[in-house]
Amino acid sequence: MPSPDLKIRRVCSAGEPAFDGLVAIYTEAHAENERKSPEKLEAMIRHPAYFFLVATELNQVVGFCILRVLHDSDAALLEYMAVARDRRNQGIGQRLFVETAESPPFSSKFLLAEVDSDKKNPADKGERIRRKAFYRRLGWREVDQLRYIMPPVSGALPPDMDMLVYKRDLPPHIERDRLRRWLERCYVEVYGMSANDTRIEGMVCALPAKVRLT
């Protein structure tokens, strides 16, 4: 169980000491081909649509999550979430997510997450299975048949990713057109791509009108 001293709050500026603690965990927890630069994170935190949340114990950052509320949308992207390596498996990640999902900016929205795919056989497949199982225990479901293409965020190609969806009362299906709009907003607002990027249509063109969440 998390410590009773665990507090969760928003960090609003790169000048706050907690921002440095967040960046340290972010850098340790995410592979280089999934990470944005510290300068990019500083630009993101200044944008009002981004929420940087930290879990702290006695003013020490032990976990964080970064979310982007998508413009004119019923969704938000959980862009990053991680817990300090020496504090994992203690309920901190679950507490951080649950409090975040129930807070006013997000409680009425669908939450989206890009998670390393466990469908092939990479060297870290066991870790990918464990990570996806964490999300599933919290009620997330995978967009069935979607071959998600994450745009690069660094000089290296990103890994294979799957897209998961969360909502308190999550339906068993999502309309393909709604999914397309989510992908368009993510591509434009998170990755600086065009809403007409051909990868978007390539991802959804073969999907049924109602896409299962499994």
Order of helices and strands: EHHEEEHEHEEEHHE
Structural class: alpha+beta
Assign the CATH superfamily: Gcn5-related N-acetyltransferase (GNAT)
Radius of gyration: 17 Å
- Main sheet, how many strands, which sense, barrel? 7 strands, mixed
Topology:
Elements: E1 6-11, H1 17-29, H2 38-45, E2 50-57, E3 60-69, E4 75-83, H3 92-101, E5 110-116, H4 125-137, E6 141-142, E7 161-166, E8 173-175, H5 176-190, H6 198-204, E9 210-212
Parallel strand pairs: 4-5
Antiparallel strand pairs: 1-2, 2-3, 3-4, 5-7, 6-7, 8-9
Describe the structure.
By secondary structure, the chain is α+β, with helices and mostly antiparallel strands. It has a single domain, classed as 3-Layer(aba) Sandwich (Aminopeptidase). It is 31% helix and 25% strand. The protein contains six helices and nine strands, in the order βααβββαβαβββααβ. It has helices spanning 17-29, 38-45, 92-101, 125-137, 176-190, 198-204, and strands spanning 6-11, 50-57, 60-69, 75-83, 110-116, 141-142, 161-166, 173-175, 210-212. The strands form two sheets. It has a seven-stranded mixed sheet with strand order 1-2-3-4-5-7-6, sandwiched between helices. Strands 8-9 form a two-stranded antiparallel sheet. A hairpin with a 2-residue loop joins strand 2 (50-57) and strand 3 (60-69). The longest helix is centred in the last third of the chain and has 15 residues, at 176-190. The two termini are 29 Å apart.
Describe the structure in brief.
The chain has 214 residues and is α+β, with helices and mostly antiparallel strands. The protein contains 6 helices and 9 strands.
